Amino acid sequence: MYTKFSKLIALSLMLSLTTMLSAQKFGYVNTQEIIQNLPQVKEANSNIEAFQMQLQKKGQEMLQSFQAKYQELERKQAEGLISPKELEVEAQKLKEEESKILEFEQSSQQKILEKSETVLGPIRQQIQDAINMVADENGYTYIFDYSTGFILFADSSADVGNLVKAKLGL
């Protein structure tokens, strides 16, 4: 009697699990394709590139100035126009300037990342909001991002990319 009861419970659990799984609706979207089609992304990338170019130009100017000072110091040393004490002082100044250049390079990379997040963050949020609306309006339980490569198989009828594009006005 106990085995019949446990089999009955197991069978009812399997049936309810099957019913729950069949009620779920899955979809996928290629966010990279959507991002490439958004005009705001092209403008944002242009702004980021312009900012990056400004920082690179300033870094190049700093480096050229450093190299000129270094060559001038070498010339003075070769011609005997500088005492060992003065050479030591000037070499220390160059080391400090070199450190400032390295700090500038590191901070530039951080600034570029921050600028990218500031400019592209709202666009990513806009895409996420469109995906959320498509999921809500069409009863999807899960929507996967095809561009990340985590889908091993996907029926093309589950692609919700066109619905998301429509929400974004593309």
What does this structure look like?
By secondary structure, the protein is mainly alpha-helical. It has a single domain, classed as Protein Binding, DinI Protein, Chain A, CATH 3.30.910. It is built from five helices and two strands. The protein has a two-stranded parallel sheet with strand order 1-2. Helix 3 packs antiparallel against helix 4 and helix 4 crosses helix 5. The longest helix has 55 residues. It is elongated. The mean pLDDT is 87.
- Proportion of residues in helical segments: over 70%
**Structural class by helix and strand composition:** mainly alpha
CATH class: Alpha Beta
Morphology: elongated
Beta-strand residue percentage: under 5%
Question: Which stretches are low in confidence, meaning pLDDT under 50 for 5 or more residues running?
Answer: none
Q: Strands of the biggest beta sheet: in what spatial order?
A: 1-2
Q: What is the mean pLDDT?
A: 87
Number of helices: 5
CATH-level-2 architecture: 2-Layer Sandwich
CATH topology: Protein Binding, DinI Protein, Chain A
Q: Total domains, how many?
A: 1
What would you report as the Rg, rounded to the nearest angstrom? 31 Å
The total strand number stands at 2
